[in-house]
Amino acid sequence: MLQLFLLIIHIAVIFVGPIFMIGIINRVKSLWSGRRGPRLNQSYFELLRLLRKTPVYSQVTSWIFPMAPTIVLATTITASLLAPIVAGYAPIKFPMDFVAFVYILGLGKLMMMLGALDTGSAFEGMGASREATYSGLAEPVFLLGLGTLAWASNATTFQDLVAPSNVPLLDLGLRITISLAFFAILMIEASRVPADDPTTHLELTMVHEVMILDHSGPELAMVQYASAMKLTMLAGIIASILNPIVSGDNVFLTIVSALLSILLMVVIAISIGMIESLIARLRFVTLPLYVLAAFVAVVLSLVIVTANREYF
After folding, report:
1. pLDDT confidence of residue 247
2. Residue 3 CB-half CA count within 13 A
């Protein structure tokens, strides 16, 4: 029954959470600008509006273009089943599954870039080039962070490597530095400020948004929903890393741990909204320095693990 409860919560957070995560971010940004802002489930109605539309295709596109959004959404859903989001629980787990998690997300990103290139548009090709560059910088940092957690916890599954350790004091410093690094990666992968701006309409400053300029109707809905799901998934991973409650087989602790994870995800969404309200996006030439800061945080985590290896 406990596993069934966690599975239901996990599925609910993955499929319903993206609507409210985007809603919280937009509401926070509106409040900071002195406006009431949209309701928290506004993106749900926007997705419904897109689903009612008929997609339009360019004559130069092939089967790759309409297929790309479907693969992007499918890979994001598959990756979400490997990610420990609520109470450190993942529906699917196997040895070294966190490596498969990174590669599955990479497959979806590859298809998105191929779809952008398939349009024959110079702007979308430019966006695909930028996406490839920044992903090439961010993904090794993310994988190194997961490897550091695996070494610290002696775990081989994604679910176990984010579980709280038995040395809270040493564990705290490691998890804070890893969480800061992953938060920076989240801003890049989810196309949020300061790495990107999901609301911009100037092609010369776009990264992710320029790649989906030709998508419309249900396909655009799939891309936007997959992006929100990825944001929710990465926020859930950070929440699982920061969650100090070891639930085990205790039903009460499991419920408390799940609620705490959801609360931490809400805090992350509020933090994203505040950051996007207070600072502007970075220039393209300075974005590698942003990734470098995340890399330094991961290296610091690796130093913490190396210096205290006998305690982990």
Report:
1. 65
2. 3
